[in-house]
Amino acid sequence: MSELVTGEAVALELRPARLPSRMLAALLDLVVGLTVYVVVSVGLVAATASLDEAAQLAVSIASFLLVLVGGPIAVETLSHGRSLGKLACGLRVVRDDGGPIRFRHALVRGALGVVEILLTAGVVACVASLVSARGRRLGDVFAGTLVVRERVPGARVGAVPAPAPWLAGRFSELDLSAVPDGLWLAVRQYLGRMGQLDPQVGWAMAERLAGDVAAFTGVPVPEGVPSAAYLAAVVQERQVREARRAFGGPVAGATVAGAPGGVFGGSGGVSVAGVGGGESVGRESGARTVAEAGQEAPRRSVAPGGQASGERRATGFVPPA
After folding, report:
1. How far apart are CA 277 and CA 177, in angstroms?
2. Longest Cα pair distance anywhere in the chain, in angstroms?
């Protein structure tokens, strides 16, 4: 993986193409170019049979430059760095900052490619690619370009397992804001692949990742909680918070934490069925439960005149909606 920095100071992670794939792409391009050159040469020989030797030599040189030099330059310019061989191998030529190439980049690459590939049978290009850390030949170095892999095989990552039921909501008050995204990615990758790891290696990785997460949260891993189960519970808690932040409400089937009333029966919470096993979720400090709100009406005292205390006499005036 190679990290490129764009003009907007954005880091791009790209996979530079190595020598075998580049050789295969160059071979395919060379076969296509030579085929077109032979067809064009046969046609030109038949068309210039009546000319003298010097004219025929000039036409043959022009056809060579036009087909084997100008052809690749035109194709890479119009396709933004994807010739036929590179398209078949899943490669593309990009600038050093990750942007698409232009005519000047393709011109420098094509001009030096005549010396590197055609005149030396690719020996100079192979040596330069082996020496370069990112597999670049001389044409890429002088043009400021890089050949990268566009089709990258995706890694098969399993689904993140759900935490144990007895850990649901246990980390609802944990501060996860300081945990970096890179560590979250590592935890998710471990949870998705922990079934494929050796037990000893998996246990050591879980211990290290759990220690890193605990260091960023400032709260140690609870005693008696396995590291893998702790990581699964913390990841689920983060997903619940992100879903609540995105959709603006509690998530069914998960404990919602972080509200002022708290969880686990906070004072003044509104009971929500299906959230956290029926635990109360505080919406506002001093809010009433649904049961209290429904039982309050029959408890109002009635004055001797038959009017409920605290109610005003009807005047016939209806306020506007």
Report:
1. 26
2. 129
Please check whether residue 258 is in contact with residue 281, taking contact to mean a CB–CB distance below 8 angstroms.
no
Which residues, in sequence order, are CB contacts of 41 under 8 Å at separation 6+?
A: 60, 63
Give CA–CA dist 304/118, Å, rounded: 111
Q: Which residues contact 286 (CB under 8 A, 6 or more apart)?
A: 268
- Residue 127 vs residues 113, 137, 154: alpha-carbon distances, Å: 14, 8, 30
Beta carbons of 141 and 131 less than 8 angstroms apart? no
| Claim: this prediction has a pTM higher than 0.85 | no
What residue ranges in the chain does DSSP mark as E strands? 2-5, 11-14, 91-95, 145-149, 270-271, 280-281
Q: Which of 168, 188, 151 is nearest to 254 (CA)?
A: 168
Neighbours of 223 (CB within 10 A): 5
With beta carbons less than 8 A apart as the criterion, state whether 167 and 229 touch.
yes
- Looking at residue 71, its amino acid is G
The 3-state DSSP composition of the chain as helix, strand, coil percent (nearest 5) reads 50, 10, 40
pLDDT tens per residue across span 83-100:
999 999 989 999 887 788
* Segment 55-93, tens digit of pLDDT: 888 888 888 888 888 999 999 999 989 999 999 998 999
Nearest-5° Cα angle at 120, 115 to 123: 110
